[in-house]
Structure formats: C-alpha cells, structure tokens
Design brief:
Blueprint lengths: L9 E3 L2 E8 L5 H11 L2 E6 L4 H16 L3 E7 L7 H9 L3 E7 L10 E7 L2 E7 L5 H6 L2 E9 L3 H13 L7 E3 L2 H9 L6 H9 L45 E5 L2 E2 L3 E4 L1 H10 L9 E5 L5 E7 L10 E5 L7 E8 L2 E8 L3 H15 L21 H4 L5 E4 L1
Parallel strand pairs: 3-4, 4-5, 13-17
Antiparallel strand pairs: 1-2, 2-8, 3-6, 5-9, 6-7, 7-8, 10-16, 10-18, 11-12, 12-15, 13-14, 14-15, 16-17
Length: 393
C-alpha cells in the first residue's frame, strides 16, 4: 500500500510555508498544473529544460497564455543537460512569453529551480530541486517548498527583483532566446539533442547485479505527456544514440583483405560532429597511438549516390583474435589505438564490448541484430563472430 505524506504549512511574517515532496507525494507536475490553472503571471528560473518536462506542462502553459497570461523563463545550459528540443518547444509557445538562456563561461553553474505565480490576490513561489525536465517533474525523488503571501508583499517584490536581475540586458551572462540563437547554441555545442542527453543514463546500464544490491527498488508515480502535445520527434534514445558527453568509442572491426577495417557510418559521422564538422561526410585526421603519426580516415562513395558515403575505411593492424579500434577525443584531436583480443589488453576491451550487449538497454550497438537472433545455447561471443560492434563511452 502506497503512502502519501502531507506536510503541514506554517505562517512566518505573513508568509505561508509548505513542503511538497515528489516520490513520497504526487508528481510535482500536478502541483504546477494547479498553479498555472489559477495564475495570470508566471516566472520560471531553472537549471535545465527538456522537452520531456515542457511537454508535461504544455497544455497548462498554453491555457494560461491563452487567457492573456504572461510567462518569463530563464533557463540554464550548463553541464549538457538542457536540450535543443526543450528550448525549441518554449519558443513555439504563443502569447506573452519570453525565454532567456543564462550561462557563465567561468566555473559558476546556473542552478536554481524556481516557479513563481501571481494568482488572484496571492503571490505563490515554489523553490526546491525540481528542474523543468521529465525526471524533475515526475520521476526523481525531489522536494520543493511553497511560499504564499498576499500580492504586493516582500515575497512578490523579491521574486520580481530576482527575475529582473537574471534578465538584466546589461548582464552578458544572459541572452534572449530566438531561433537564430538556438541554432548557434546547437552548432557551438552548448545544447544537445534530447536523445543524446537522455542516453547518458540509459547507456550506462545497471550498475550492480541484482544479487549484489544493498537497497530496495521502488518506481515513482509517473505522468505521461498527452498524445496531443506537439513533442519533437526522436527525443528518446535509440540503442545507437551516442551519449552527449562521450569521449571514447570502441569498435570491433570486420576486416576485409586481411587488415582493411570498415568503420560504421554512425561512428565516423558522430566523430565528425564532435569535431565541429558541418558536412555529413568527409575525411578526418587521427593520431595513431602506435606509430605516433597522423592518419586520415576517409569515406568511400557509391557511384549511384556520390554525395553520401556508404562506409569509412581504415587500415588496421593484423590480429590473431578480434581487431578492435579505440578512438578517443582529446580536445579537438582524435587518438586512434588498435587492440587484438588475443592479447590481455585487447581481451579486456573485447569483454567491455560484449558486456554492453547484456545491459538493459544495450550500450553496445549491434547494427545487424546478431545478438538478438542468437540460437538457444549460443553465447554472445559466438553470435557476434565476424560482426561489427561499437560502444560509445
């Protein structure tokens, strides 16, 4: 039987206080839906924004704006946690809404989670740990405090002063968001696609086997985004979605003519993207860790579609076992290193790739689906013999 905790409110200096937990209470999005329903003005300052969170509030925000309400949002873009799709959805809202992004190129992180409302004669402010993301509004164990005071009091004055400071045009830490700026943020790497960001958690897999876990497992109450909400496509990670902050990729190569390895298109294009290349296909340079020399990995193009590559080729070293290539990003350079699974270090890398097929969801990509089609009694190693595998890490 589930238990919902109710926290009593108190009044200090005319301000009503109440704690609102998520996990031992209802999803925080339920509280925000009620607040937007009665508000004519709303303020949001949040460290992270994703479509998975905006989608949960889309109808509530749209209804408030449709009544002539006003919305001001300041969103952070630190630590690769705000998504392009989340910001794009905010830009798509119609009405009296302005969206700002805030970032400090020095070390301080913009980290508040504030939701303020003017409803009738009250100023209502929620401050806590809930970001404007699916996890923050519906899934994680979070806590916020609700402060309520009559309009015109200290609470409203401090809320408006804080929001004005965050949006101060003379402050070069903040910019008014528009479509051009969003494109610039994406190209410059300040924001990522949501699938990549959500892939951070999914690509790690379970951290412990069930028999080694010391704590219980309990799922929260979750809210789903209504099907009518215009959510951007592909915000959920696919098995081949690279995590946003990867630095290494391991590839078990399928060799032709002895040592000619074929690099999967998805891997080569992702490396090029991280290097800031705009075109879909083209060569890129790596530094060979064995020879210390620069080498070029180049695409090959089919005659019928000469503008789009069909593979990338790299000359690998001879291998008694499986030939494995590791590409590692170091700043704006790529280091390349080959391993042979017949040797101790190569076997460790090979086992890392195979273990990624066992995680749920899988963190090692099997483009041909060989592991899924394996026969009863057949091992993953046997099923993927001669098959290209890769894993971003």
């Amino acid at each position: 039987m589930s238990t919902e905790f109710i926290f009593c409110s108190d009044i200090i200096w005319g301000v009503s206080l109440m704690l609102i937990p998520q996990f031992y209470g209802r999803p925080f999005v339920d509280t925000l839906v009620r607040e937007f329903a009665g508000a004519d003005r709303a303020y949001v300052a949040t460290a992270w924004v994703r479509a998975s969170g905006v989608g949960l509030l889309w109808d509530s925000i749209t209804n408030m704006l449709g009544r002539g309400g006003r919305l001001r949002i300041v969103a952070g873009i630190d630590r690769e946690n705000t998504s392009r799709e989340g910001l794009a959805m905010l830009l798509a809202l119609e009405g009296d809404v302005r969206v700002y992004v805030r970032h400090n190129e020095a070390t301080p992180i913009f980290h508040p989670k504030l939701y303020g409302f003017r409803a009738g004669g009250e100023c209502r402010v929620l401050v806590g740990s809930n970001n404007l993301t699916g996890g923050g509004l519906s899934q994680n164990e979070e806590l916020s405090a609700l402060l309520v005071e009559e309009v015109g009091g200290v609470l409203e004055r401090s809320l408006r002063a804080y929001m004005r400071q965050l949006r101060n045009p003379a402050d070069d830490l903040v910019k008014l968001l528009d479509a051009e700026l969003l494109d610039h943020l994406t190209i410059s790497g300040y924001v990522e696609a949501e699938a990549r960001l959500r892939g951070k958690a999914s690509n790690t897999g379970p951290s412990r086997l069930p028999e080694n876990r010391l704590f219980g497992s309990r799922q929260p109450i979750r809210r789903r985004i209504p099907s009518t909400v215009p959510i951007p496509n592909a915000i959920n990670p696919r098995p081949d979605t690279p995590v946003a902050d990867w630095t290494r990729v391991f590839v078990k190569l399928r060799l032709a003519r002895g040592t000619q390895g074929q690099l999967p298109l998805a891997v080569a294009r992702e490396v090029r993207r991280r290097l800031g290349e705009i075109n879909l296909d083209g060569p890129f340079t790596v530094i060979d860790r064995h020879t210390r020399a620069e080498r070029q990995i180049s695409p090959t193009y089919p005659k019928r579609r000469p503008e789009i590559a069909n593979t990338y080729k790299i000359e690998a070293m001879p291998a008694e076992g499986h030939a494995i290539l590791k590409l590692e990003l170091v700043g704006r350079r790529v280091l390349a290193e080959f391993f042979d699974s017949a040797e101790a270090d190569g076997q460790a890398v090979y086992e890392f790739l195979i273990d990624g097929l066992r995680s749920e969801p899988a963190s090692t990509v099997d483009p041909n689906g060989a592991a899924a089609r394996r026969h009863v009694g057949q091992s993953l190693e046997e099923a993927t013999e001669g098959v290209t595998l890769y894993r971003f890490d």
